[in-house]
Amino acid sequence: MRKxxxxxxxxxxxxxxxxxxxxGDHAPGSVVAGAAQVLKKYPNTxxxxxxxxxxxxxxxxxxxxxxxxSSVRHTDKFIRDDEKPSAAxxxxxxxxxxLAIEAVEKGEADAVVSGGxxxxxxxxxxxxxxxxxxxxxxxxxxxxxxxxGETIMLxxxxxxxxxxxxxxxxxxxxxxxxxAHKGVTTPSVGLLNVGxxxxxxxxxxxxxxxxxxxxxxxxxxxxxxxxxxxxKGIVDVVVTDGYAGNIALKAAEGVGKMxxxxxxxxxxxxxLSLLGGALAFMALRRFKKKVDPRVYxxxxxxxxNGICVKSHGGSDxxxxxxxxxLAVEMVKDGYIAQVAQEISHLMSQETFLAEGAYGx
Length: 360
Description:
- By secondary structure, the protein is an alpha/beta fold.
- The protein folds into 2 domains: 1-130, Isopropylmalate Dehydrogenase (3-Layer(aba) Sandwich); 136-297 and 333-360, Isopropylmalate Dehydrogenase.
- Helix content is 46%, strand content 15%.
- It has 14 helices and 11 strands.
- Helix 4 (85-91) packs across helix 6 (118-128), helix 5 packs parallel to helix 6 and helix 7 (164-182) crosses helix 8.
């Protein structure tokens, strides 16, 4: 457990979120405005805001309810976007990012959210919060929109090289997250592969498949899924290594931008198309909302002994609010305790212990 066990807010049925106010292209404005949006939905939330008080206070004063629910802790130090994780660890002791993470470790906050440097955030979080007992590799997870519903995918870049046991642990992390986020009792879990046949794929992927078919975990193993299945929504959770996961994430972002570009280009191509666009305005508005990447913003670092959410660096207030909402909901659902219990159960199973070395 973290130092202090729980934050002070947990005993009064409220929650405290630590915010790195200086992380992101539009910080601290997007951070403060995003927090104001979340406070309207979750009024029992309190915020510890770490950043340059001279920049944060003027913005915070525009949101009176948020100002009353927040405490600003001054630091004029922050982690640059181009800073290497190793350098950030050495020189970022008093940075807004590190102080926000330490607030969770000390029990002053229930979760931390940052839009700053991803590598630095993961490195600091792993050292300060540490992985939960039994977890070998924390993973980054995010939510993808899909035809049949949302899909949670992990790992999205934290672990380029993995073994079968890592993938099985990712399945547990993702399944518990899906239960909380999607409200499904037994989430379906698929392993990303180059085909659906049992004989396809590298040894560690086939090894993970053999384990998932036998062990008890908080999900139901679906089998292999391919790249085009991610957005079909045929499974609740897609598990892969960080190399393939990050490529899939960036490819999806690129396709989204390309689709939006061509869509606007087509609507503006002639007067008749403009008229058609005007007539279909409400339908187009619903479509945009369904695929708006800001709504799905937030990469969650799963497997740590504390909740840490990464907001996209270019997010505006709505995007940051989405990432912050993820953090609040994970605190509400007791995600850390659930994962600790499920990982302990997994590691105690004879099937997992006997066959866990397969595909390493």
